[in-house]
Amino acid sequence: MGVRRLAVTFALVLSSACGGEPARRARAGREARRAGVAYVGGATCRPCHAETWSTFSHTGMGRSWYPLTPDRVIEDWTTHNTFDVKATGLRYRMFRRDGKFFMRQSLVDPKGRETAVDERELTRVVGSGHHSRTYLVAVGDQLFQAPMCWYTKDAVWDLCPGYEENNDHFTREIDRTCVFCHNARMERLPGKRNAYAEPIPQGIDCERCHGPGRLHVDRWGRGETPTGEGIPRSSIRAASTARLRMQICFQCHLGDSKSTERVARIDAALEDWRPGQPIAAAMVPFRFSETTPHDFGLSAQVDRLLLSRCFIESKGRLECVTCHDPHVTVYRKDRPQDFFTSKCLGCHAMDACRAPASARRATSPPDDCVHCHMRKGEPSDHRHAEFTDHWIRKRIDEPQRARATFGVEPYLPDEFEALPAGRSRVLPRTRAHRCARTRFRRCCKSRMWRDAERSFRESIALGFAKPAAWFFLGKALSAQGRAP
User: Fold this and answer.
1) pLDDT digits (tens, 9 = 90+) for 152-166
2) Cβ partners under 8 Å of residue 393, min gap 6
3) Residues 283 and 152 in one domain
4) Is residue 188 part of a domain?
5) Each residue of 249-276: pLDDT tens digit?
6) Residues 208, 177: one domain?
7) Which domain holds residue 161?
8) Is residue 145 part of a domain?
9) What is the rounded distance in angstroms from the CA atom of residue 327 to the CA atom of residue 316?
């Protein structure tokens, strides 16, 4: 079955299985958004939701962003703390000095001497450390990513994802798309792409999934119990259907950097998206390369789940929260060994398994469904880590093969078609062509540039005549050997 046909099948399942929201609740949600309901911060939720707040603070989301301090050290800063990039002659050294943490970049000449030294203090960490940690440097009020990451499984320093192909040194900006997934709501300073208003949150919080809490907090503060009929309840529990609940997870767990591109809409601020809205209200996902059984991306959990027969045939019963409680870490020590198997048995009978008894006993724990039906491996876009491929399938031992490149297509077509006709559909596709232009193999680039040219011309005809549109149209024409 082709990727396009699969995508259409998934979209139909998502839309038909769950039905529409009640008009009253949808109306309340729109009114809340129009009213500009304020964010209050996760700490405000703690007094009333102490237990949930406590368990969530131990999850990867709850520990996604924080200052780099001595009490949070997990890396080797003293012994195996030097990394040489043989292809370029760059050397990195990570070290501590006076209670602070630094990364030193230099070029090494033939005699082993350092030149072109650039040393930066590391101020913040992105990532819980379950798999890796990324480090930020501050230049004034602007934030940038450092080139080296710590990888927990292998206990090594290595280049961060993407730096092996394009080393931005200390100039990779921490822009709005970075913070949208890796932290609670951050307000950008006017006129800057990577500078944010203080205080900067420390980790993803309750409002990332539940929406802004001001009305909810105020109503409870007045002693009024929400009834589910007003704006406050809508702003906290906006996702009233399985389809929209899953799209909360789409924020960060949809997208494979080797085959997809999530394009933020130019006609809607990314920061204005609220849980309970379709994800296409904020961003439109496009696929430019084939999905294969072997390769999967670090953040492609939803992409892969949508491929699963379990998901398709469940008709909406299987969703992310079927197996994952977002408030509790999957790494907790008291998690029962058969926790995920018990989830599978919610739909499947144990005696339906056709595997030999010896093979079933050999898994740890015995009769572990995940061991046989969800492949574990290193993501194609992240080294030194092992993740679970969320494509649930009968066989997980398919041989590796190269991905085929086929063009830029929306892979949630039902959501795409729900966008208003005209610029709302054309602009995301235009920007997807721009983002994906460097990812196509040589044999496919001529077709990609022709498609890009048509897309840019259509955008301009619809009124998007900004300099960027003309600039990239010129690039598309030049790439084809034609004069602008």
Assistant:
1) 999 999 999 999 988
2) 293, 307, 308, 309, 373
3) no
4) no
5) 999 999 998 899 998 887 788 888 888 8
6) no
7) 65-182
8) yes
9) 22
